[in-house]
Amino acid sequence: MYDAVGQWANSLAAEPSSAANSLAGARTKAMARLALALALLLCLAVPSPASAADLDVIYARAARDIQAGKPLVVTVHVALCDNRSLACGGGGLGNGDVPKRNLYWGGGAGLRAFFDHLGRGFRRVHVDAGDKKRVLERVVYRMRVKRPSARWRRLGVTQPFDVYLVGLAWRGRAIGGATRAFVDEVAGVAAARALTLRSGLRLRFGSASHVVGYAGHNHMMDVLGYRFPKVKRRAAVGYFALSCINARYLAPLRAAATRALLLTRVLMYPGAFTAYGLVRGFARAEPAKRVYQRGVFQYARYQKRTKRLAARFFTR
User: How would you write the pLDDT of the chain (316 residues) with one tens digit per residue?
Assistant: First the structure.
């Protein structure tokens, strides 16, 4: 399955817009390949930042929450791939109204496809139909950290704790809502979300999360002058975005209380394997550079790239 995803991503080299006819489609794919080549050349000319703000402020917040009996929480907004705006493929991969086989959710290396079968350490504990309008499915995975890392112990976390990953599958046509939810939650201007698990736990997520992520098409590429809110967040948060060439678009989110775990500099496939690497590193309270590398290495592994080449695709 993942070999097929790799071949798909390599052949299209991006998420080009759907064409009105076969000739336009061929031209779109050719332009996408050219854009990828130019982006790679730019990446080779501009090295990744030697250092970035560490995650100490977020780990300190998380440690206080864990000591208070709360879990570590990650929220990921996924905008379903939609053939009406992107070339996603057939067989349900591009049906933006049905998550089950969608390329970014239940098919390919989408969030549910990956975490249901390859997300070692994570167990699905909840799934529902969202609001059945814009959010078509919500899923929750739990990972138990039995032995906190040395860094957690230095922060006073000595007992086992839980990590919850909450994924929201947004309808393809609601990509604007998915993007806005991600941006507003990172900026700290959105109300926290909550749901009750079968265990009875009332799980707060969204803007209440320790990490907020996005996966899907870069909607900001299609909007002239995307309007960002002023970052008003006080509780520190990490964030990542798995979409094409998003680092510059998301620059307004950089603030004293926000930390980018991983952003992109080229056209790419937003497979959940990258998020998996980031979350595993974050759950161990690893340094920012190591968390970032885990995401990059997972991308290299599943997309059959060298680690050195894959590193040119990302920044933070």
Answer: 433 344 344 433 334 344 334 444 445 455 545 554 544 444 444 334 433 459 999 999 999 999 999 999 999 999 999 999 999 999 999 999 999 999 999 999 999 999 999 999 999 999 999 999 999 999 999 999 999 999 999 999 999 999 999 999 999 999 999 999 999 999 999 999 999 999 999 999 999 999 999 999 999 999 999 999 999 999 999 999 999 999 999 999 999 999 999 999 999 999 999 999 999 999 999 999 999 999 999 999 999 999 999 999 999 9
Q: Count of domains in the chain?
A: 1
> Which DSSP symbol is given to 178?
H
Radius of gyration from C-alpha coordinates of the chain: 19
Long-range contacts from 202-205, C-beta under 8 angstroms, 24+ separation: 203/71, 203/73, 203/140, 203/164, 203/166, 204/73, 205/73, 205/75, 205/164, 205/166
State the Cα–Cα distance between residues 282 and 143, nearest whole angstrom: 12
CB-count burial class (<10 Å; 0-12, 13-18, 19+) for 6: middle
The pTM assigned to this predicted structure is 0.85
**Residue 33 main-chain phi, psi, to 5 deg:** -65, -40
8 Å CB contact between 74 and 163: yes
Q: To 10 degrees, what angle do helices 288-303 and 2-12 make? A: 90
**Where does 1-147 show beta strands of DSSP type E?**
72-79, 123-128, 135-145
How far CA 75 is from CA of 82, 153, 211, 213, 296, in Å, comes to 22, 25, 6, 6, 19
**Which structural domain range is residue 295 located in?**
2-315
Query: From CA 276, how far away is CA 280, in angstroms rounded?
Result: 6
Q: Using an 8 Å Cβ cutoff, are 196 and 253 in contact?
A: no
